[in-house]
Write a structure and sequence with these properties.
Layout: E1 11-17, H1 18-27, E2 29-33, H2 41-53, E3 58-65, H3 71-77, E4 83-89, H4 90-98, E5 103-107, E6 109-111, H5 113-118, E7 129-131, E8 139-146, E9 153-157, E10 163-168, H6 174-185, E11 195-197, H7 204-211
Parallel strand pairs: 6-7, 10-11
Antiparallel strand pairs: 1-4, 2-9, 3-8, 4-10, 5-8
Length: 214
């Protein structure tokens, strides 16, 4: 079951936390990590098997969503008040990632257990397969592999022009949002970034429309 891919989404979203965002902005780098710590052990197992079957020294990854902002993404991937969503311009981001040798890019393919029983995935496909129950995530991945370097993480240079906007957690108290925006914009090169507090769970216009019901 392939992830929705037509029309091609203009943006890729990365849900993470404020410390990771600050590191990205200060260092102008995006970080791929060892998937062994992922919450979904089915997912990390497939990447582990890929590493074993190809006799690789390292397999690192970073995940994005091709879907619009949803409550699910916030709660699962950035569920605290320190969560953030970085909305990247798709093509500039992919160009930056492709500059690093050893990086593969692709949409995740979603399969049911019945489909997997019927036809086992290929070794090459293992990094981009996930169970069908996760299809709403519309995930897109960057995978780095190395046959001779043992690595726990990998930083790739990231032009800040790749970032379209940053959304702060909808659970971040309004009194803290302005100070957080100021701290982000004070980082070298970040003064022009669009930074907003998500109104997903508290939108005043939505409430006003409900109040006008007749």
């Amino acid at each position: 079951m392939p992830a929705p891919s037509s029309p091609m989404p203009q943006y890729l979203r990365r849900y993470t936390d404020l410390p990771a965002l600050l590191y990205m902005l200060k260092e102008k780098k995006i970080t791929l990590l060892d998937p062994a710590s992922w919450d979904d052990s089915n997912d990390s197992h497939y990447l582990s098997r890929y590493k074993e079957k190809k006799a690789l020294s390292s397999v690192l990854a970073i995940c994005f969503s091709q879907a619009d902002e949803t409550y699910h993404h916030w709660r699962v991937f950035s569920g605290s008040s320190s969560g953030v969503c970085i909305r990247f311009k798709r093509e500039p981001l992919l160009r930056a990632l492709r500059k690093r040798a050893g990086v593969m890019l692709g949409e995740v393919n979603y399969m049911t257990l019945a489909q997997a029983r019927k036809q086992a995935p290929s070794i090459a496909g293992l990094p981009f397969i996930k169970r069908a129950a996760f299809v709403d995530e519309q995930e897109f991945r960057a995978i780095f592999e190395s046959g001779d370097q043992t690595m726990r993480s990998l930083d790739i240079t990231l032009p800040l022009s790749c970032i379209e906007r940053i959304s702060l957690s909808p659970w971040l108290h309004k009194n803290l949002a302005d100070a957080t925006k100021e701290a982000i914009k004070a980082i070298d090169g970040c003064a022009g970034l669009k930074v907003y507090r998500s109104t997903l769970i508290g939108n005043e216009e939505w409430k006003t429309i409900g109040g006008s019901a007749c």
